[in-house]
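FAQ: What does a multi-protein file look like?

Like this. Sequence, then tokens, then the next protein.
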Amino acid sequence: MIDQTPAATLVLMGDNLVIEQINIKMLEFIGRSDKIIGQPLIAVLPELEGQYVWEQVKKVYHEGIAFDQNEVLVPHNRTGTIKNYYYNLAYRPLIENGKITGMIQVAIDVTEQVEGRKQLEESERRFREMLLQAPVAATLFQGRDLIIEIANELTLKYWGKDASIIGKSVAEAAPELEDQQVIALLKDRYEKGGTVSFSEAPITFIENGVSKDGYYSFSIKALYGNDGEVESLLSIGVDVSEQVEARKKLEESENHFRILSETLEQQVNKRTKELQRSNEDLQQFAHVASHDLKEPIRKIKTFIGRLEQEFDGKLSDTGTRYIERIHVATAGMFNMIDGVLAYSTTNASTHKIESVNLNEVIKNIETDLELALQETGGTIMHSDLPTLEGALVLLYQLFYNLINNSIKFAKEGIPPQITITSTNIFEHDESFSKIILADNGIGFEPEHANRIFETFSRLNSKDSYEGTGLGLSLCKKIVERHGGSIIADGSSDKGAAFTIILPLQQKGTSV
């Protein structure tokens, strides 16, 4: 009878809990053949001794109390080594003539769901932390009522509010904004979608009953759900009040003191350039919000898709809603998480110096790009890379961007092969590592070797190759912050090679 049950089922009999019946599904779970029939379960899986699940087995047999629990951790040997598995378990005693003679066990393997959920929770935590630590005012609004879901410290500082506004609508948290332009912009983005940016917008906040006027440059980006409808809004802004006030004072001074016109003009130009750089950085932040770190989210989406196929029609309505919520969350995170990370790491004022093993960095990148490598058949060959001083997060971003580029610009039908080698050199009384990353991709014309490092520069059609044109410019910025250099060499259809020279030791404690 149990052979026909769709769930893994096992019947144990006697004080020694001997396996009397077991179906194929349960044999697959424990990684054994039907030769184990007639053996005590603990003899087949001795690693269960002392585990929570084994105590429940004995309790059901000795006390006759049924046991039902979901997502129970059971480390055991299924494939030759002990690994962690999660099961939904149901145990029932078998009673004959008023006496417990055995028990029946039913198990459903939910390891993929549990681990997928944990990965999603970790990704959400990392995204939230990155947004909270962003060097600009970052605010996430949910729904048509513009409920404040995330507001980092700079947002609270600009608004003159505390963390109690989180979970409230904008109208409740800051009613003084209701008749101002920013609210109209937020509502308009929710209705129309897309992105809008404004420079030096005047906004008045009320802090402790006192009006506080200021000027802010900001972007508002609509985030979409799986149904294609706007689900939330991400606002990124900077306070440019000091720059605006300074420029206004300079303009007034110029009108009153013509004799100082040349000096004042230079200062105004300087202030204007600072504002332009601030706005350009803000635009880069919004663009990079959909760049490199998509692989972990792709994995989550892939595994969720597999779960949907595996348990099609078997999930409860609640389970189906959970899956839908995961899809919605990953869709939003897919478009934002990498940009937040890339911008915050490359534009932060300082990064602590630490010892960085580049072999470990490349291994971690291989893991993050696992799906892309599998899909393209790509390989990364490296060995004996140096350990040097630098900012781990920036060096990771450097090599991630270069390797991701090699995969993205592979020749059609030819698996990408990426080779990374290094040698130590000594120049100007300082030791450096010369690292060469080469691939067999589509390459580029030699005359474009310098242009590819320019911001938003693209050598290929964006219809053929996705990207923002920021990846290599960020690489150049990271290398230069470490006191190094990067050059590119390549030929059309013959691959590309990047030569990175980095000092083995940094002169300060931060970069």
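And here is the next protein:
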Amino acid sequence: MVVKNRIGVVGSGPIGCAMIDAINESSNGEVMGIWGRRFHFAKELAKEKGVSKVYGSLNEVFEDDELDTVYIATPNASHYEQAMAAIEHGKNVIVEKTAFMTADQANRVFDAADKQNVFVFEAVRSIYEPNFQILKNAIKKIGKKNSWGNPKVPKLFQAVFGLIERRKSSTFR
């Protein structure tokens, strides 16, 4: 029997919607409920995706004993407070990139997670893509020493990572 990670989604916009699709396609996750800043959009999305719960407040998400994990897909400035609240309630946290606004916020979140024995990670899929390894290798080549023995340090390296949209939903807010 496969034990499924029971996930509450915080955020009913395009990223949260895409994550619901991804979780539903997986064999080891299950979306238990969704919260959105605009309740009626979250309710519409839940109906479209077959999600049984629509939370009326963030506290309802964090206090839901049926959840193992909270996935945070809200504006970046909200991530810190929402992650800390989830951790305080003993929830694992997956937070969309950019996870936190400062290194200090990130350190506080990871310290709190250690104390509560839960995990926190940033949803950065590009680091798992083949293009990321190509980029890492290219940076290593740029960083080799020049003819005088001094390391070459890139001043600017710009890259664009893209993905093919697989969204089946029309509910984007």
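Q: Is there any per-entry metadata?
A: Some entries carry free-text notes. For the entry above: The helical segments are 14-25, 39-49, 58-63, 79-88, 103-116, 130-142.
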